[in-house]
């Protein structure tokens, strides 16, 4: 997806459709793209230039980058009283340390374009970062949803959706185990000769119960927004769900990537903001 930035008015219901392309399968070097997905800067959270809140954001963002490099996740804060800023950063649970580091550094640079907003979130395929003046730790937030879906539909929706439901239940059972820190991935055969790949992830500040709530909401959104497409992903501020008929998580499925790179295919990205 191309480099897009939108200022969203969060209290309003908004559906924004953006035409884009992304590589769905492996590139020639054998790894999928770390695609930029979206940067959301809440216009109602503006802070004054030179204010203590803006200075705290300036200090916090590099801390988020540095601490995420250590173990792929951090939830921390900086500042005092009304100017305190809460921040969280996390890499996808299957990516390498190098891919995590590259992604979170990019996120840390790009998110600074919204440094005069105290409520900002950025999504990449491999990582995620957000900060806010409001303490959002261990809170399920599904008001802002970013979802992308393929422009191709499956030939047998009934069989496909039945298998997809089974896969999401299986992967969800992994994610809900405390030892897995809200992360699960897996695949299921789709007759006659295809495979569905699925991945779920919560931000690691969520309790198992809150992780279940967020992922259930995201998975249910597939029925409304993804409509029998061959691939779809749904990202909230608290969790992320994705499935595809092409392998996208690591390690890549050798049986499906042996043929090398595939061409980028058109995708639609939709931003939904609601109360």
From TrEMBL:
Subcellular location(s) of the protein: Secreted
Keyword rRNA processing: no
Signal peptide location: 1-26
Statement: the UniProt record of this protein carries the keyword Ribosomal protein: no
Superkingdom of this protein's organism: Eukaryota
Pfam families associated with the record: Stress-antifung
PROSITE patterns named among the record's database cross-references: GNK2
Key words of the record: Repeat, Secreted, Signal
Residues of the Gnk2-homologous domain: 34-136, 142-248
Predominant cellular place of this UniProt entry's protein: secreted
InterPro entries named in the record: CRR_secretory_protein (IPR050581), GNK2 (IPR002902), GNK2_sf (IPR038408)
One GO CC term, this protein: extracellular region
Family in the record: Belongs to the cysteine-rich repeat secretory protein family.
Name of the featured protein: Gnk2-homologous domain-containing protein
Source organism of this protein record: Trapa natans (Water chestnut)
